[in-house]
Amino acid sequence: MGKPAAERRLSENEAQAFARLIRSSPRKLNLVAQLIRGKAAGEALALLTFSKRRVAGEVKKVLQSAIANAENNHQLDVDRLYVSHATVGRALVMKRFHARARGRGARVEKWFSNLTVVVRERADEPVQEAAE
């Protein structure tokens, strides 16, 4: 009994990972996501490791999860992976109150974001660098 398995939304040479409710605004998170779009997986991990932005650690965890999904669930070659999509979306916005002068209050919005990273296996063979 039970319902049939859903069809795979991605192609056979892709894997993805999600992060929900990242405590950063979508605008700031998208700056980090732009760094890794189209880059090889190893190069993207190196960029995120040495990035000064706080949210780069969260993006790195999602990218590592996507790489692990590709390797373990879809049997893709890790050396041929690259970041095909890195999309950022809005999540909830917490509204808070900040006390101001003369008994007034100001609204403080604390933005949350969602992140989706899709890695794809390149069709061509990885380039072997000449060893000296």
Notes on the structure:
The mean pLDDT is 93. The protein has a three-stranded antiparallel β-sheet with strand order 1-3-2. It is 28% helix and 34% strand. It is flat and about 70 Å long. It has 132 residues and is α+β, with helices and mostly antiparallel strands. Helix 2 (41-49) runs antiparallel to helix 3 (56-72).
Supply the CATH architecture: Alpha-Beta Complex
Strand proportion, as a percent range, falls in 25-35%
Percent in helix: 25-40%
CATH topology: Ribosomal Protein L22, Chain A
Question: Average pLDDT across residues?
Answer: 93
CATH class: Alpha Beta
Low-confidence stretches: none
Strand order, main sheet: write it out: 1-3-2
Question: H/E element string?
Answer: EHHHEE
Number of helices: 3
Keywords: Ribonucleoprotein, Ribosomal protein, RNA-binding, rRNA-binding
Family: Belongs to the universal ribosomal protein uL22 family.
Pfam families: Ribosomal_L22
GO molecular function, one term: rRNA binding
